[in-house]
């Protein structure tokens, strides 16, 4: 399945500010790129690319005062299949986990594993370790937390979500991640593209999306406590311990977002790809 | 100056549990090792060594039920000089920081940079960026927070320290780190050996110590909001975003510490080194 | 000055629910009433009136399923003068405060006096006790906290306001109250009518308002960390330790507010009063 | 059953400080007093007695610098029966509760009813309202929270107890109170005497004790999530919304407790009462 992916972000910058964008497709999905994946920045300023400690591709620059625009769109070849599932996937004993997976068991800024460990055992201690346990976590979070864009706030943690039972995408995932880690299942926060492909009418307003991944049976698997059904066309951009590690745009100083557009569509007429350069 | 460093830790393990120790000298201090630095584990069990994403040396193993003992002592050549200081060291504009330093500006589990940013600017917004600003942070934390071993608790964050004004070593550093990051100065948590060398009588009971490092003028510098004076014989073991990344011992399940001894002494009679093998 | 005061509130009630309204004028302002002050409830149901432990007049009832409407409007004679001020008013030593004032020094649900005491002394410890200290608190809160209706959330406490620096009316007052109590000045939360009388064009959308009162020189005085200027036509409805004690409407179960109108206008043409009975 | 009750408290007072003691037997238990109940204060200073808004008897004074001693002991006639129980006691619909009981449904400083409401329904939503529901709350808290004197801290709230699962007497009661209120059952914090009467050897070190009361079937009933068994010889001193309202000693400034003795014994040899005057 061919997807058109992209974004168009505009900011008002009052004074020069250092910025980091995590807007590129994750290296693990590079094979799907049908066109180069470069962040196009207006005005033309020097960009520096690097991979952070999680392997996410980052683009750094010093934004000058004025309007800053980050945009790109490109074609991406996806399997067209829903998120892979293996309902009998087993959990590894912690002693057998890869070294670099262990850090996804620890507490992090928005995932207070230490504070929610007892609640996790109360709620899920009797479930069988493995896929079913993660699914139980997702079912619970999905059923108990109400979604609403007005419930967002930047300092909201998993414990806040547990007590307030309200949130946006990232909040659902933070709570689910925290429960999983407390239960000994490595879990990481993921962000990327998620269109409405295969979803009946009335799609949600377009934005990037957050989900999470757990490590079971030798690999990472996608879960999504917000939607809680397998979806088509999920394309990873960045993964980390929680939203503190993963942000499509970070400015170390003021930057006011004034326009925000994300594209994630199936291309049905392949003869007419609109390239980023043409837009 | 020749130091004898080491530890002797004993745990009661009720059932087999996966463990990670961060008990080795940090690679940045490897030149000082006069004897091999190996964690000696009793009973003899397979150990796996790896470096975590911060470059800290970790030792992993599956501890069997029974008594677990981790011990070692070894000679270490230190400069014998106090913590280096450069009181006119400048802060880098964020746009000029190395890529791998940027993550030490972000919020982390015990350092809610987002929540304490306003207080940091209230308190230190008028200080001059650079060494003096960090020193002002340390002076404030040192003066305002009371030390007491009974003030420790595992979930205590920088915000808790700010409101309660009580804590142990790690709490002092967490608050200072959080303020520094909020002020645009990369700061990381550090743990290691710190003896009473050069300190008049009545030394504190021996333990590992926590301090922090900030990035100024092209390198990391040691600061210590708890003691707040340059010290001799500080030997780094591990550094990370906060205590969630740095723990001399982590068990993924119950492990009861029943004995805890840390050695950090100056060797004045060099003719009689007691090697780890002899102990 | 003659005011017309009133409200018109409509709720959807799904199943019968116990309710308490604090919609009456506070007994301390009863002299201004030019018409009876009764909560008119539709449908006609039994009402019970009582004074709570703070002396606020409460109206209790069991709301049946369906639409619930609470309304009233009435004429009220006000001095027409701005909030009284006595800039040299002294603070009482705590030992000389009246017995029933002491409780307004204690921590309460949204005012964590214990947690913010150190910050209060950092910020205001050098101000002179009395009116000036309270004004310094109000100036600080007013300058540091940004107002926005979208910053409201029901569990937000003074500590949250201190860290987030955003809020609505009640949040400003909670933070100021907490600082005052920590500094030994009794402070209580107040709610009532506050129109735009004497304010130039572009008044704010009409709502009830929150302010606070402090006890200095033998009486309670009005302060308002949100507006931070003396205002005309403030009419108290209820006072208590914080918003947990004072709510114009409390339902012990679901009740969805679907219409909300508050009237607080100067009556300039006294010949045409619109009485509640006529509306 | 005849009890000897009393206390001997000594403080170091550095500079004169306003104090309030809640050391008298609650008016509801006055009938049991066999000797006058007066707080004896050394040095002899003026005392003022008053009842607070909960009806607790308070003793106010300005403590001079030096040693402050509060003491008393007296004989008290108790039923000798365990805490009354009525396992089929029903819960009142909120609409039928007495006016002055309603405030014990609201959130308070250490009882964040709003934040723990969802967890309360998760855990106890399926229990039958009434005595059994309260007992289920006590059983849960008693089983899940570990007791330890070193777990005490002054700012600890019910939510902290829920996440940390550790605490002292007051913490157990705060969590149970919060759950009860969230479930629509009025609950208040209680403090008083509780000896080891009828308890086999190895009694706990003597202190005042905290428990809680719930309103069922037209009266308040004693529950105790810490001990969770009916006890003999419980004598109420003060009740309020939580520990912020009830403290045997409050000083508005520094006062260091240096001696603390509580007496709560059965008098078996009635011929030899030791009166307070004789001690």
Describe the structure.
4 copies of one chain form a homotetramer. With 279 residues, chain A is of the alpha+beta class. Helices cover 17% and strands 32% of the residues of chain A. Chain A contains 4 helices and 14 strands. In chain A, strands 3-6-1-14 form a 4-stranded antiparallel sheet, with no helix packed on it. In chain A, strands 4-5-2-13 form a 4-stranded antiparallel sheet, with no helix packed on it. In chain A, α1 packs across α4, α2 (131-144) crosses α4 and α3 (158-164) crosses α4. Chain A is globular. Chain A starts with a strand and ends in a 13-residue tail after the last strand. In chain A, 43% of the residues are buried. Mean pLDDT of chain A is 94; it is low at 275-279. Chains in contact: A-B, A-C, A-D, B-C, B-D, C-D. Chain A binds chain D through residues 112, 115-116, 118-119, 122-123, 144, 159, 162-165, and chain D through 112, 115-116, 118-119, 122-123, 144, 159, 162-165.
């Amino acid at each position: 399945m061919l997807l058109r992916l992209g974004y168009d972000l505009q900011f008002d910058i009052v004074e020069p500010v250092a910025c980091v964008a995590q807007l590129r497709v994750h290296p693990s999905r590079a094979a799907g790129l049908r066109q180069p994946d470069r962040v196009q920045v207006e005005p033309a300023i020097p960009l520096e690319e690097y991979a952070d400690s999680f392997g996410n591709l980052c683009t750094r620059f010093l934004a000058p005062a004025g309007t800053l625009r980050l945009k790109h769109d490109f074609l991406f070849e996806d399997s067209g299949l829903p998120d892979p599932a293996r309902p009998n996937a087993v959990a590894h004993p912690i002693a057998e986990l890869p070294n670099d997976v262990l850090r996804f068991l620890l507490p992090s800024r928005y995932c207070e594993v230490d504070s929610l460990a007892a609640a996790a055992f109360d709620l899920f201690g009797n479930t069988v370790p493995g896929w079913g346990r993660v699914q139980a976590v997702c079912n619970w979070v999905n059923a108990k937390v109400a979604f609403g864009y007005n419930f967002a706030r930047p300092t909201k943690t998993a414990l806040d979500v547990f007590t307030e039972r309200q949130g946006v995408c990232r909040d659902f995932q933070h709570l689910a991640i925290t429960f999983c880690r407390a239960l000994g299942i490595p879990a990481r926060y993921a962000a990327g593209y998620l269109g409405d492909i295969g979803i009946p009418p009335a799609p949600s307003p377009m934005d990037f999306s957050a989900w999470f991944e757990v490590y079971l049976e030798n690999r990472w698997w996608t879960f999504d406590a917000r939607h809680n059904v397998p979806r088509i066309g999920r394309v990873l951009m960045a993964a980390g311990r929680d939203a503190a590690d993963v942000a499509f745009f970070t400015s170390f100083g003021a930057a006011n977002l004034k326009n925000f557009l994300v594209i994630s569509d199936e291309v049905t007429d392949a003869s007419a790809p609109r390239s980023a350069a043409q837009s």
